[in-house]
Design goal:
DNA recombination, Tyr recombinase domain-containing protein, DNA binding, globular, mainly alpha, 364 residues
Length: 364
């Protein structure tokens, strides 16, 4: 994360930000002089990706030939445009005229290429949208997005994994404008999604299994750091033991345990870890962060896919090298080879060996 921040700072300097920006400056000028060049001159973005990121900038500024944009940010001073009310109104306008998907994409681009640079430069104290649930218009959404069976490629998986391992979820989170929710709870909400995703993308647990997981279930089994999934929370009502495939994830989870003092749920309610995190609130938080990460890590699938994507991804990654019986035991599928309890780690040994081989290849 520090390396990424340094790279972003170099990009800002390279695009001509020698002078200090003030809250009275036009947000449109900042977007044209800083945000747009950051995208255009990026050496890490593909040309097609640059086009996808530049389109929301035009909508944010009100440049749309088909619809009048009453809530566009163009012409506003940064201090005004950077308020929650103006940002929400702008995204609501985009949702009503271009659909919720476009608005979600615009929010992600807005956070990464406009608000985050403004926070880094000390012009804004924080990202007003971070941790906020936006109730955006969905009238143009004609059908529910079909999900299931989608996998991301191994390179995208590794890119997100490395990013999440180093991520500081408190970065850019501003204090709430009003209400009982504290900044700490908002940070905890984001950290919950980070921890849950690290577990799911490397271990294949279902979100229900992670959400109801207590700390006593994260322990060594037969000498291997593992998560013991009891039958009462497993989808197929068959308990199993899932070993950690990546030692880096173990370190993050154990550090999280120290912060939580090993009390309550691994990803408990952000306001009270001893309480179960509400299912709907968890799903909303996951959707919000995945859309943000879709832009941050160039994984467009995350704009629509949710946590089930990791089981499909892992299954594809290990398909050719790990026997079906081992994958079935690891993921907890319902199959003829399933038994009442998966406590013999010899069954999932091939998964551990293949994970070790993959890590060795990635370091060379």
């Amino acid at each position: 994360m520090r390396a990424r921040a340094r790279e972003a700072a170099r990009e800002l300097l390279a695009t001509g930000q020698g002078a200090e920006w003030k809250t009275s400056d036009d947000i449109g000028a900042f977007i044209e002089q800083i945000s747009r060049p950051m995208i255009i001159e990026s050496s890490s973005l593909r040309d097609s990706t640059k086009v996808r990121y530049l389109q929301p900038l035009d909508l944010i500024l009100g440049r749309c030939g088909r619809h009048p944009r009453k809530a566009a940010l163009a012409g506003m001073p940064i201090v005004t445009a950077g308020t929650y009310s103006k940002l929400h109104a702008c995204l609501q306008d985009i949702a009503r005229t271009h659909g919720i998907g476009t608005a979600d994409h615009a929010r992600a681009v807005l956070s990464k290429y406009i608000l985050r640079p403004l926070v880094r430069e000390g012009v804004l104290s924080g990202n007003p949208l971070a941790g906020e649930r936006l109730d955006l218009d969905r009238s143009l959404t004609s059908a529910k997005v079909s999900r299931g069976g989608v996998a991301i490629d191994a390179a995208a998986h590794e890119r997100l994994l490395v990013g999440l391992l180093a991520m500081d979820t408190a970065e850019g989170v501003a204090a709430p404008r009003r209400g009982p929710v504290t900044r700490e709870a908002r940070v905890a909400r984001r950290e919950n999604v980070r921890i849950a995703t690290l577990i799911q993308m490397t271990m294949g647990l279902r979100i229900t299994e992670v959400r109801t997981l207590t700390w006593d279930r994260v322990r060594k089994v037969q000498g291997s750091p593992s998560i013991a999934v009891p039958s009462e929370i497993a989808k197929n009502h068959t308990s199993r033991v899932v070993p950690f495939l990546d030692p880096r994830v173990i370190e993050v989870v154990e550090a999280h345990r120290q912060v939580c003092e090993g009390i309550g749920y691994v990803i408990g309610s952000p306001a009270d870890r001893k309480k179960l995190w509400d299912k709907d609130n968890a799903q909303k938080a996951i959707a919000e962060l995945y859309k943000e990460w879709a832009v941050e890590y160039e994984i467009p699938e995350l704009m629509t896919e949710r946590s089930h994507v990791w089981r499909a991804t892992l299954n594809m990654m290990y398909l050719d090298r790990v026997p079906k019986v081992a994958r079935t035991a690891f993921f907890g599928h319902t199959a003829a080879v399933s038994r009442e309890h998966y406590t013999d780690l010899a069954q999932v040994g091939p998964m551990l060996l293949e994970a070790q081989r993959r890590r060795a290849e990635s370091t060379h």
